């Protein structure tokens, strides 16, 4: 009898231990603010570079992933576990399936400049995307658009027969980015975030802005919000001036560049187009792609006018984007 009781107690203890580490489940995430995004693609497609760009860690040295990297990432008021799955064939064959099955969103990356591997990448995409839950959003991303050998998105769309995937009853998007320069990264990310959160469009709260020339000289600046709010991010505003000059000098040889940086309480979105650079401070929960669209429109305005005076940046923001400046008044 004592032996039987000991076996039953051992069985209960074993069951309890097993329940602490369950296998990944296929059901949809119950917490509406938490999602798992799995990023797949052949090795050297740029998956880790994409994740580091989103985390504002693109100054770090990127090495090939021979396993899996899992990063926790907060964007807007949502929390993400981003799974960067190594693309080497042995890992694909043994581990990808379980990471894809547990995902709330799937991103597939292809190196748009490596057409020699397009066929292998195509077969990989069609095979492994079939393991995802049927209702989750899938994004197909052509990376490395900054390279001269990068193929046009239309060519990639046709080669990978993506029209067939568009017929599926699920959200699907195709975009072209450069994880190195940031071009298109946040616009692509915002699409999958919007689908998961059910949001159509988020407004941007621009706290301050600085426009400078290619030498980093400030041509015009604007500071918005109530005085007490401005005092809360005074340190960030001083840092904004330093970062805007550094960005101008770093991007002086490029026609168009984007960059995102984190401060103590705010984020800074930089955009350079032509001879002008525009840096704005926004809230960490704001959609970066919307901020960059605003910045590009403002830069287009000044390019046409070919003149910037001290108060002109504030005037343009208040006249063209009154709902997206912090408080709408100085």
Description of the structure:
By secondary structure, this protein is of the alpha/beta class. The chain contains 11 helices and 11 strands. It has 2 domains: 29-197, 3-Layer(aba) Sandwich (Rossmann fold); 208-324, Beta-Lactamase (2-Layer Sandwich). The chain has helices spanning 2-20, 47-54, 89-101, 118-128, 153-159, 162-166, 185-197, 227-232, 234-250, 288-305, 312-320, and strands at 34-41, 68-75, 78-85, 105-111, 138-143, 172-176, 208-213, 218-223, 256-262, 267-273, 276-282. The strands form 2 sheets. The chain has a 6-stranded mixed beta sheet with strand order 2-3-1-4-5-6, with helices on both faces. Strands 8-7-11-10-9 form a 5-stranded antiparallel beta sheet, with helices on both faces. The chain starts with a helix and ends in a 10-residue tail after the last helix.
Spans of at least 5 consecutive residues with low confidence: 1-30
The quaternary state of the protein chains shown equals single chain
Number of strands: 11
**Structure classification:** alpha/beta
**Do you know the CATH topology of the largest domain?**
Rossmann fold
SSE pattern: HEHEEHEHEHHEHEEHHEEEHH
Q: Biggest β-sheet, characterized?
A: 6 strands, mixed
What's the rounded overall pLDDT mean?
Answer: 83
Can you identify the CATH superfamily of the largest domain?
Answer: P-loop containing nucleotide triphosphate hydrolases
Instruction: Tell me the radius of gyration.
Output: 23 Å
Measured between the Cα atoms of the first and last residue, the distance is 82 Å
**What topology, given as strand order, has the largest sheet?**
2-3-1-4-5-6
- How many distinct folded domains? 2
Report the top-level CATH class of the largest domain. Answer: Alpha Beta
The helix content is 25-40%
Q: In DSSP terms, counting alpha (H) and pi (I) runs of 4 or more, how many helices? A: 11
